[in-house]
Please model this.
Amino acid sequence: MVDIFYPLQWIADKLTYEVFGIVPDTHLAASVNFIIYDVLKILILLVVMIFAISYIRTFVTPEKTRKVLGGKTGLQYHLLASVIGAATPFCSCSSVPLFIGFVEAGIPLGVTFSFLITSPLVNEAAVAALWATLGLKATLIYVVSGVLLGVFGGYIIGLLKMEKYVADFVYKIKVGDQNKKPETLSIKERTAIAFDNVKDIVEKVWLYVIIGVTLGGIFHGYAPEGILATYAGKDNLLAVPIAVIIGVPLYSNVMGMIPIVESLIGKGLPVGTALAFLMAVTALSLPEMIILKKVLKNELIGAFVLVVSLSIIFTGYLFNIIL
Model:
């Protein structure tokens, strides 16, 4: 499969090894390369996704969207959002632009979180890699668990009624002239609206992206595999929550974590503990929380982290019992 972000990796390699002159295969090189690549990738995704979502939304008024989706918080809508999340191969930070678009469009907050939780956890490439490394049984359980985490995590957040803890600017962003019918807008007007929305949102979050990815890159270059194997071993009853606590500060997509998880399992770490670590890194990364801090208030971020953490811990113990 062609990596559409290969040019960004080429740029990251050139800057890291030739321009900065950092010696390859060192912790510093891994961190710097990761930071350059992911900052470029996420900022490009931010621009492209926000533009696309904003352009599409010019065809439908926010009022119509809210009429169709507003208040529909049944489990079937959470399941739909979670399945859509599984079909979109974005890392946790890349999912944030879509999250903003969902909230702006009037989709219920809990349903939006169902997408946000599942999107970084499950995708077709991860399924193939997990199948090859851990087998079909573990892969199927992982996929089902990832989707259910999104369904029930989003459902619980929806029940908490925390819409007031979304940053005010998200609700205030308007899609063009609300007095003009969507079907009367020209392509030029739709494009202008989309560009204005890109400018407005990127100006508010770009610094948080850089800070978040930089922290994640530092952890990525100095990944604490030895610490996890030492303090979250099979004889420790608290191994699963410890793995989750260690995983939260890290930042990587699910594909980047699978080799590490395979290594940990090979060192004797229980499968459930290792996969709980994987889920924590991909669904609850500290960089994601830093980026979300710009659009969510502390109370909602705290509820999100608590609900998903407890769900992951439960899933980890369940894995250890089943596998």
